[in-house]
Amino acid sequence: MPSYPELNKLRAVSFTFDAQSLDKKIEYLLLANRNMIEHPEFVKQYSELLLFHLEYPQNKKVFMLAIHGVVCITNVLRSNKQLCGKLKDTCLPYTSFTTKYTHDLISWLNQQPECALCIDSFGDNKVSLYHWLGACINKFGKNHLAVATLPEDSLMQLEPRKERQLSFLLREVARLDNQPEVKDLLWSNLKIWISITSKAKDFSLLFNRIEKSKTFYNSVLLKTFDYQQLYEAPLPPASKLTNAKALDLQKVIRYSLTLTFRETDPATYFDIRSLQYFKFHYLKMVILFRMVVRGYLAIMRASE
Tell me, what's the pLDDT at 232? Predict the structure, then answer.
């Protein structure tokens, strides 16, 4: 693995919050921004450091330099597709990753303009997919088309345009929306791996965040806090949300779990009508929402 002295020096002072470390942070951030190296390991390591300084800036200068670093990396990735290809599964702007999520979440992601989805591959349980595609061929009255040996070939007969095959599968499985338990089990058993590509910077770890009205600067690294005190504290009045703001919060939450490979049922089955947003002092915020209990996975979680 390549080693980059400027990043090593920045990493060495990143987690210390005294005056001397502040001067060094500014010096090394300036150096890294001026000498951006278009190498996947440099971009990956520097992105991780920038994410930390965006969340724990020691002062405004550090915060602005971190923002500038993010812009520099984004501009490089926007113009260098080869580099993006070498940064697969990093969830940086304009890169791609492969995953397997629920039908509900994949259907929702497939409608978002900031990302593009396509079928990457089929898992080891191809029997279920083989028989289901055979049933689709018969249902569409295409009995003259033989069910091929491979599911990929059967799918090609049903939808020859590869860029539309995922949408075809999503629509067909969605016919079972009124039988959510069956739908979830079917989609899970199909074992379809999806490739997701960032088409806009907002669909990335560097940009997907809830906007804050105020930036807090840190004099110490907060490693622990009194969660019991937070739990027992009375909630302040909920912030007033427009419909657009509520949808934006929902998108940030879902994108966050998608980009960190941590799909959870509450985010997937989000009841946006119940959304409440509470701002506390410093960095704390609480977002409450109800979960629409539909589907096999959601029902299993709700019963636990």
Answer: 82
